[in-house]
Amino acid sequence: MSGRKKHSTPKGTVLVPLYVYPSPGAWDPLLTAITNHPRLKFTVVINPASGPGVEQGPDSNYTREIPKLNKHANVRTVGYVSTSYTNRNISLALRDIETYSAWSENSTIAGLGMQGIFLDETPSQYQAASAIFLDTLADSIISDTGFGKDPLIIHNPGTIPDSRYMKSANLTVVFEGAYSTYQMHGFHKTMTAFRDSSNAGRDALACIVHSLPSTLDESALVKDLRSSCGSVFITGLSGDYYASFWEGWLGFAIDMAA
Known about the structure:
It comes from Lachnellula hyalina. It holds the Pfam family Spherulin4. It is a single chain. By secondary structure, the chain is α/β, with parallel strands linked by helices. The chain has a single domain (about 15-255), classed as Glycosidases (TIM Barrel, Alpha-Beta Barrel), CATH 3.20.20. It is about 35% helix and about 20% strand. It has eight helices and eight strands, in the order E-H-E-H-E-H-E-H-E-E-H-H-E-H-E-H. It has helices at about 30-35, 60-70, 90-105, 130-145, 180-185, 185-200, 220-230, 250-255; strands spanning about 15-20, 40-45, 75-80, 115-120, 150-155, 170-180, 205-210, 230-235. An eight-stranded parallel beta barrel has the order 1-2-3-4-5-6-7-8, surrounded by five helices. Helix 1 (about 30-35) packs parallel to helix 8 (about 250-255) and helix 3 (about 90-105) runs parallel beside helix 4. It is globular. About 40% of the residues are buried. The mean pLDDT is about 95.
């Protein structure tokens, strides 16, 4: 038999910056997508207070909702830690990591443990001091048993970074911005070129696109992103992008699961 070979869109993971406060029912759209698509993987960034907060554990709303996420086999939860482009006091970043790690040891509430850390505001331009900063955080995450085996370490420079930083992360967000910026600068080609030049696997890259126009064919965009990045998040919100779920959220999950 002869004929053209059909090329399928590569599978992807939904990367969710979950900065939605978990008042009752607020996380239901996420839980609906998770249960509707058990074969679709979700990486969920938990961010109680631009980090874990000053207390040893999160408040009662978080302790009620986080275990609902962690009970699903297709979900990995990671804790948010700011690095301020490695200008933050490293002891504070290490303390945040330690706090998240300790959640898994909560003796009264099971299922609070994180499976890694999302390091926000990581640099893109290489500096040796920044590399040491990020290596130190990675060593802390890997050595801390509270995150389990093979914890996920995510860098978010929000743009193409120097590839030397990638050795201390499993996943790097190589684009975070508005759809208009994504289109204007041809980031699809840029990401593909970076992947090839850095010898990074597709699964090592992530892309976050917000402010989608209402007339956009979202399915086509998702296919475009999945072809170059292993982890994807899109939203039509043009402000407070991660503080609520947009009306196209469940449709996006369907496109990612296709």
